[in-house]
Amino acid sequence: MHASTEAPAEITAESLFGPLPINLEQLSKLFLAAKTAGESGRSLGRHKNIAPQNMDRLYEQAIVQCGEGRWSDACLIALQLALHEPRNSRYLFLGGTCLQRMMEFEAAAGLYSLSLIDDEQPIVVFRMAECLAAASQFDQARKAFDSCFEMCRGDLDLRDVQEACAQALVRLTPH
Question: What is the domain partition of the chain in residue ranges?
């Protein structure tokens, strides 16, 4: 079924996007391509005339699924949302969160990286650094933790994140 601007009675990812023809191994490459498209301002969702409120409804469904520990289900929705709106950092962050909980660290790091294009937030950099470390990409992880540490400097609300970065840097630094 083709997407429309009117909200169907029940929103499902399949009703808006059709099936998602990828597996987790393909995610890193796919989202690098999406990053390029996103940087040029293209949006598959706008091309298909998918109403933003329908995207928001699916996002809320995925959040509920995360709360229920249904990371795989939520991930499929988040990935479809991100593919259709590659510049929406909350869709990318949600997908990264799901993948991180599913222990797909390289793919999660890629989504967190994409999320930073338009909205560089310390917590996103921190989560990306965690994934890079878990994927044994220690040099990149150290750089990301260091960057996050600096982003938090002087912000008392981010004191805990900065401390977590400092602890991670100590653990990742060869002695």
Answer: 8-119, 121-175
Burial annotation 130-160 (CB, 10 A radius, 16+ → b, else e): bbbbbbebeebbbebbbbbbebbeeeeebee
pLDDT tens readout for residues 19-56: 555 565 555 655 665 566 667 666 666 666 778 899 99
What is the architecture, at CATH level 2, of domain 8-119? Alpha Horseshoe (1.25)
